[in-house]
Specification:
296 residues, 2 domains, flat, disordered N terminus
C-alpha cells in the first residue's frame, strides 16, 4: 500500500515511475482545433480528387460519343463520295487503319469511363465519410462569437478572389462572343455580296449567319456582361469594407477603438453585400417577361 503523505513513497516504482509521469505531463495535448484543421485539409484534398475524377469521366463520355460518331461519319462519307467518284484507291490499308484506330480509341475510352465511374463513386463515399467526421468533430468544438467572426474575416479574402475570378471568366466569355458577332457580321455581309457572283459562298454565308445568331442569342440570354459587372462591383465593395475596417474610417470611425464592434459591423456589411449579390444573380436568371412584370 502506498503512503500518500510519505515523501519517500510518492510513487510505487520509485524514480522510473516519476520519469514516466514527467513524460506524460510533457506530452502534447491533442488540440480539437488542430484535429478539425486536419480534417478540413483532407476534405479539400478529397474534393479536388472528386473534381478531377468527374472531369475525366466527362471526357470519357465525350469520347464515347465521338468514337462511334466518327465511324458513322466515315461510313456516310464513303457512301456519299463513292456515288460520285471511285474511292477504291482510298479504301486500302489507310482506310482500315483509320477505322481500326477509331474503334480502338472508342473501346479504350469506354473501358476508362467505367473505371473512372467506379473510382468516382468510391471517392464520393470517402468524401461523405470525411464530411460526416468533420460535422461530428465540429460539434465538440465550442467557439465564441469573436472567434467565429475572426475566422469569417479571414475567409473573406478567399471569397473576394472567387468573385474576381468569376468576373474575369464572364468578361472573357462576353468579349469572345461579342467578337464573334462583330467579325461574323462583317464577314457575312462581305460574303453575301460575293455570293451573288460566286455560288460557292452561299453556304459560307449561311453558316456565318447561323454562328452569329447563336452568339448573339447567348449574349442576350445568359447576360455574361451583367454577371461580370455585378461580381466585380461586389468584390470592390467587399474590398472597400475590409480597408475601411482596418483603417477605422467611414462607418468604422466612431467605433475604431472597439475591435469587437468593428468586427461585428464588418461581418454584417459583408453578409449584406453577399445577399445583394445573390439577389442580382436570381434576377439575371429570371426570364425577361417575369423581370418586366416585377419591375412594373
Amino acid at each position: 500500500m502506498v503512503c500518500n503523505w510519505c515523501p519517500l513513497s510518492t510513487t510505487p516504482n520509485g524514480p522510473e515511475q516519476t520519469s514516466n509521469l514527467k513524460e506524460k505531463e510533457s506530452a502534447p495535448v491533442s488540440n480539437p482545433m488542430s484535429h478539425l484543421f486536419e480534417i478540413n485539409k483532407r476534405v479539400l484534398e478529397q474534393e479536388a480528387d472528386v473534381r478531377r475524377a468527374r472531369l475525366l469521366l466527362r471526357l470519357g463520355y465525350l469520347g464515347l460519343i465521338l468514337g462511334p460518331a466518327t465511324l458513322v461519319a466515315i461510313y456516310v462519307l464513303a457512301i456519299t463520295v463513292g456515288r460520285q467518284r471511285d474511292i477504291g484507291p482510298y479504301t486500302g490499308l489507310p482506310g482500315f487503319l483509320a477505322v481500326g484506330i477509331t474503334a480502338l480509341s472508342a473501346w479504350s475510352i469506354y473501358w476508362h469511363v467505367f473505371k473512372a465511374d467506379t473510382s468516382l463513386r468510391q471517392l464520393d463515399l470517402e468524401l461523405q465519410a470525411l464530411q460526416e467526421e468533420r460535422r461530428l468533430k465540429a460539434g465538440t468544438v465550442r467557439l465564441d462569437q469573436r472567434a467565429r467572426r475572426s475566422a469569417y474575416r479571414v475567409e473573406v479574402g478567399s471569397d473576394l478572389l472567387a468573385f474576381r475570378k468569376n468576373s474575369r471568366y464572364y468578361r472573357r466569355v462576353h468579349n469572345a462572343l461579342q467578337s464573334v458577332v462583330i467579325i461574323g457580321s462583317i464577314a457575312s455581309s462581305a460574303l453575301s455580296g460575293l455570293s451573288i457572283e460566286l455560288q460557292q459562298f452561299r453556304w459560307a454565308t449561311v453558316l456565318l449567319t447561323f454562328v452569329v445568331g447563336i452568339a448573339a442569342g447567348f449574349i442576350g440570354y445568359f447576360k455574361f456582361r451583367e454577371r461580370s459587372f455585378y461580381l466585380q462591383q461586389t468584390a470592390d465593395a467587399i474590398e472597400h469594407e475590409a480597408s475601411s475596417a482596418d483603417l477605422g474610417i467611414y462607418r468604422y470611425a466612431d467605433i475604431s477603438n472597439d475591435d469587437d464592434r468593428v468586427l461585428q459591423r464588418f461581418v454584417e456589411e459583408v453578409e449584406r453585400l453577399k445577399v445583394e449579390q445573390r439577389k442580382r444573380e436570381q434576377n439575371l436568371d429570371q426570364p425577361h417577361e417575369r423581370t418586366d412584370d416585377q419591375a412594373g
